[in-house]
């Protein structure tokens, strides 16, 4: 394999260690962790690459070193690849502005200290994110991860690198070639098999250009995606958060968020979706990140020392 090295300088604060611990806590199926290195396969310009990311700076003076490994890499757009990785790793976000916003609410302010420097690590591409979000509908994280692994096993081959077997998430074309019965054999429900494969076929056939979504507003994207079979508001909102990195989404129907709001605000009962939207109106323009941190108060898988 050929190799390429890139240095990225995130906006401070940036705690890569917390981000790694969170991925471990949710048992993210795409990542392998070796010491303080984060390793996964990515797709870029038709290439499957191994990404090896490591912090070589500090939380307040952050620096990431990214090593990429693959075949025929000499013609890759190095600057474009760097921008792509910066997006996935949320390095350009001015998170201090978010912490300034939290400081305006005494109930939210402690989240800034507890999760200082924690950011989203986005899914590697938009198709991967939507496929996983559909798969994860109304399932616990563990079984959703199992179904993700089974999809990869039936649709793609892993990459073997430095003694590790690294899964490769299938492209839309890979999934479009599957039959519903193949996923049914892997414990997918009939509807979920149809939703995943039909979405893949729509993207593969050009009926939906995912890249064009970057030019649309959150509400435009929610409205257009919600017209597709198997995609509702919650799915579209999670896609915007974990696939596109949009910072002002409030998936108020999410049970975990409603439980977190009950705990954080000292409510006697779990709030309704409407009540969460009322409470969360003050979270703008950082609703995604407040949601993220509220979720983490329930998971509590992040190092805080």
From TrEMBL:
UniProt cross-references to Gene3D superfamilies, sorted A to Z: DNA-3-methyladenine glycosylase AlkA, N-terminal domain, Helix-hairpin-Helix base-excision DNA repair enzymes (C-terminal), Hypothetical protein, domain 2
Nucleotide-binding among keywords: no
Keywords: DNA damage, DNA repair, Hydrolase
Any one GO cellular component localisation term in the record: cytoplasm
Molecular-function GO terms, alphabetical: alkylated DNA binding; DNA-3-methyladenine glycosylase activity; DNA-7-methylguanine glycosylase activity; oxidized purine nucleobase lesion DNA N-glycosylase activity
Pfam families with a match to the protein in the record: HhH-GPD (PF00730), OGG_N (PF07934)
Its EC number(s): 3.2.2.21
Catalytic activity: Hydrolysis of alkylated DNA, releasing 3-methyladenine, 3-methylguanine, 7-methylguanine and 7-methyladenine
HhH-GPD domain segment(s): 135-299
Gene Ontology terms: biological process: base-excision repair, AP site formation; DNA alkylation repair; nucleotide-excision repair
Statement: the UniProt record of this protein carries the keyword DNA repair: yes
First-level EC class: hydrolase
Family note: Belongs to the alkylbase DNA glycosidase AlkA family.
Name of the protein described by the UniProt record: DNA-3-methyladenine glycosylase II
Organism expressing this protein natively: Paenibacillus selenitireducens
Taxonomic lineage from the root: Bacteria, Bacillati, Bacillota, Bacilli, Bacillales
């Amino acid at each position: 394999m050929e190799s390429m090295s890139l240095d990225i300088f995130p906006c401070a604060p940036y705690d890569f260690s917390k981000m790694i611990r969170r991925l471990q806590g949710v048992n993210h199926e795409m990542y392998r962790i070796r010491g303080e290195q984060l390793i996964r396969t990515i797709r870029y310009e038709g290439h499957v690459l191994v990404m090896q990311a490591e912090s070589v700076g500090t939380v307040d003076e952050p620096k990431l070193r990214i090593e990429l490994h693959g075949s025929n890499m000499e013609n890759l757009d190095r600057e474009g690849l760097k921008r792509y990785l910066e997006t996935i790793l949320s390095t350009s976000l001015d998170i201090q502005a978010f912490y300034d916003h939290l400081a305006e609410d005494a109930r939210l302010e402690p989240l800034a200290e507890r999760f200082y420097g924690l950011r989203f690590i986005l899914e590697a591409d938009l198709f991967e994110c939507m496929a996983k979000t559909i798969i994860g509908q109304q399932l616990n994280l563990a079984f959703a991860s199992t179904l993700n692994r089974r999809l990869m096993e039936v649709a793609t081959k892993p990459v073997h690198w430095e003694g590790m077997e690294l899964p490769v998430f299938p492209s839309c074309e890979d999934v479009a070639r599957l039959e519903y019965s193949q996923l049914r054999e892997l414990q997918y429900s009939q509807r979920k098999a149809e939703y995943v494969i039909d979405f893949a076929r729509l993207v593969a056939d050009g009926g939906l250009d995912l890249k064009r979504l970057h030019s649309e507003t959150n509400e435009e994207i929610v409205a257009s995606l919600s017209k597709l079979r198997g995609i509702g508001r919650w799915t579209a909102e999670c896609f915007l958060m974990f696939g596109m990195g949009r910072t002002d989404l409030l998936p108020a129907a999410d049970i975990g968020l409603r439980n977190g709001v009950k705990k954080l605000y000292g409510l006697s009962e779990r709030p309704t979706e409407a009540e969460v939207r009322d409470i969360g109106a003050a979270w703008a323009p950082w609703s995604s990140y407040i949601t993220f941190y509220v979720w983490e108060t329930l998971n509590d898988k992040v190092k805080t020392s």
